[in-house]
Amino acid sequence: MKQVKITTEFIKLDQLMKYAEMVQSGGEAKMLIAQGLVLVNGEICTQRGKKIRVGDKVEFDGNDYEII
């Protein structure tokens, strides 16, 4: 599991994907989220603006990311 450190209260899902280098661009993140390919805390998430906080887990493309 990869750890992603944030220094704010939360980060939006699409911004997190770009920040953690899961995708090349925000547009790519938007498309992948809309297609239901991203899981947040074990559930499919199609909201690109979903607030991700410390302790959340994001799964994408066979990789797990823990927000610290």
TrEMBL record:
UniProt superkingdom: Bacteria
A family per Pfam: S4_2
Residue ranges constituting the RNA-binding S4 domain according to the UniProt record: 11-66
CDD domains linked to this entry: S4
SMART domains reported in the protein's UniProt record: S4
Molecular function terms, GO-annotated: RNA binding
PROSITE patterns: S4
Keywords per UniProt: RNA-binding
The protein's name: S4 domain-containing protein YaaA
Gene this chain is encoded by: yaaA
